[in-house]
Amino acid sequence: MFKKISTIILLSVFVQFSFAQRNQGFKLTILDTQNKVDDKQKTKITEAFNVVYPEFARADGYRTKRDVTLEISDVLPESMTAQAGKIVVNSNWLLKNSSKFEKELRVKFAKNWVSSDTIKKKGYQLVFISKDPNLDQNVKKNLIDTYFKVYPKLVKTYNKNSTKEVLFVVDTAYKAVAEASGGRILFSAGYMKAHPTDIDVVTHETMHIVQGYGYSAGPVWLTEGIADYVRYKFGVDNIGSKWSLPNYNEKQNYTNSYRITARFFVWLEKNIKPGLISTLDAQLRAHQYNEQSWITLTDKTLPELWAAYGKNPAVDLTYSGKEIKNDNKAKL
Ligand SMILES: [Zn+2]
């Protein structure tokens, strides 16, 4: 049967091509080999698809298939099935329930998720989608709590125009640690399982939303250094996750990014200019940052500042409310 269906699909692609429409980079091709639905219904189906699929794709991650086929079937035992790239609709159900198509499509796509929660607090919203049936409920709670605890502070401190509606997706197919794009943060289910205490991934990633620098505003090391500086400053449990800023050594450079750069920034704030990082962050957002910014703000070039740091890198570090003396003499 499958062989027969796929042959029909191949043949009908050409016939149905006129119903293929592009919307926000998504393309729907309706396969209706037995002409069960008329053009008006196909237009309605396409409209509903254009509403629902981008929402689904946003939660599904950037790997979502952008070319989607919708097959009208008279053998499907249920109303419809919906996955990335492939929707199958029961023709009998559709003819009787065309007004319910959009709602049903949304329900079927959400079936790919284990859970979807919408939480609102004091003007901030978080939609939390889990695709991991084994997600530890404590980890879920901690991720949500950290968002509501930290994100409003970051918005208030750095960028009041940041979105107040954020989407978290815990995805089993995503293999890195986490990433932010638009108002969405993708978490690796595998990483969170292996590192359940690393809850301040939320702090680092939500800072990327607040940063919102857009393209080519500044170097990546600076963006990531600021995000880890903010994790250091606003993190809720850096001690619990054993996250710390590594001591200085001569092999380092400020371009090493992340925690190495973040420690340099802590030192700059304490020894050169309080508020420097906040100013640089604002400049990056306004696309006004360049290498001259360091000279204007500190009277020194960036390499001069790094050299000064290297000469006397000691700095007291405070993690999540507890003080650890760091005299930079500890062996790495
Ligand atoms: Zn980052």
TrEMBL record:
Q: What keywords are annotated for this sequence in UniProt? A: Signal
In its keyword annotation, does this UniProt entry include Signal? yes
Signal peptide residue numbers = 1-20
User: Source species, please?
Assistant: Pedobacter frigiditerrae
What InterPro entries is this protein classified in?
Answer: Uncharacterised_BSP
What is the superkingdom listed in this entry's lineage? Bacteria
Q: What is this protein called?
A: Secretory protein
